[in-house]
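Re-running Major facilitator superfamily (MFS) profile domain-containing protein to confirm reproducibility after the cluster update. Everything else is unchanged from the original entry.
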Amino acid sequence: MNEPYNLDSLMAKLGDFGRYQGFQFFLHILSAVTAGLNMLSLATVAAIPDHRCVIPEVDLNPDGSIIFNATFATTEFIPRLESGKINSCLGWNVTTNSTYTCQKWIYDDTYYQTSRAIDWDFVCDRKWMGSVAQSIYMVGVLTGAVVMGTLADKYGRKPVFCISGILQLILGLLDAFTPEYYSFVIVRYIYGIFGSAGAYIPGFVLTMELVGPSKRSMCGIAFQAAFAFGIMLVAGWGSFIKDYQMLQIIYGLHSLVFFAHIWLMDESPRWLWSNGKVKEAVNIVQKALKINGHKGELDVAEYVSKGNAESRTRETEKKGMSDLFKTPNLRIKTINVCLCWFANSLVYYGLSFSTSSMKGNPYLNMFLMGAVELPSYVITVYLMDRLGRRILTAFCMLVGGVCCISAANMATGSTEAISVVMIGKFLIAASFAIIYNYSAELFPTVVRNSAMGLGSMAARCSGSLAPLLLLCDFLDPRLPSVVFAIIAIVSGTWVLFLPETLNKPMPSSIEDGENFGVGDTFFTSLSRRKRNASLETPPAKAFASEQMEPLR
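Result of re-run:
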């Protein structure tokens, strides 16, 4: 049988995961570590400790400055709330027997000696400033998801990855030395574009396009585990380094690793082939085969000849994000997937940012919030290729939503509430991880990076809302959790209407993407299984004829 000399036969020679793929995967996954670290860095750099009003009679020097050794210990000068906690925004004037609005604060230094919040007083009527700074970062990630995803489809995965990695370093250091709030917010916005989107999304797509089908689930979930490890690094460094400027410098210096990628990381052979750069694609695969120990030589000339001929006959029009909405099936899938990204991100970051309101050591709480994701990913890898993407995503979102509602009706900060929140984070982390793989498998090659960017954009919209939504707890402490729960449950139900991608070839063209999974929902699959179970001899490979051509 004659060899077809196409992209699939070329990539098949590499195998699913050899030494070459392993090394490239290691380079790609570093972007997930820094993405997680940059995303949550403000939780320590701008942490808001417990605080109270400055008491002039006790805490101030004659010149009006705060006494160096002023303590957080409360006195009769501080009014209390109905719950018995001190009122951190009001002081008590014993002379006039009335309250007054605080102008200066004393901060509890048990866990935080310095932070942006202490320097700029992100408390009381200025509390919004800290939430806006975090939200602006997420808006930057949203911008990066769209812009950098589109650029990666147009100009290649590698250049976007490397440029973003270098800018991460520059912006991370600039973040530490920005002296004024509004300049700081601008830096945070640009930092978000490159710090948690510009390298992360192309890195993920590079891995998905390089490894074989049997390793996609494992590698995709590993990206999420690396992101969680980045969160754990935030907590780890924060517990040792008490000066927030030095802490931010340490966070920023992690991006030094990306300089080596300029020489060590390769472009995606799939992207090169799809964009007419056939010889470059073949040369990379030939190098990879040698590293993997493959014996024998590629017929480079034949691959280049056939590939160039295929490029000339292929549709030359470039595809972009707008093509996701031009046909009905792709449009419905795109909207459904975007809602899933939106819901997962809202709950994930809502729970992550809420660690400051938990009792106990905030560094330990944040570390546990990251650590609880790791067993979630191990279990997810095991179940994804057995149960499928659709049912597992829906289950995790639905039960995660129930956990949020349950926690809302428990005493704030209680052991029971924290345990339920951790279970919710465990489940949402799993569904968030699956949706990355699920999205990459649902959409065709020509718009895959754009689809991932659009999904990530939806996630960052909700991620930017999460810190602001947490501010609504002054209306009712249960309100944020109830909102998280409702959105998770609605989206988890809609996921059941997406097609399953387990053991199915990834679509290549827009036409493939439009035809993929037509009529396949959880309910039709359930009905089909029941119907087949009622037959004595179920038909073998009932849908073999419906499979599309492999990824090109």
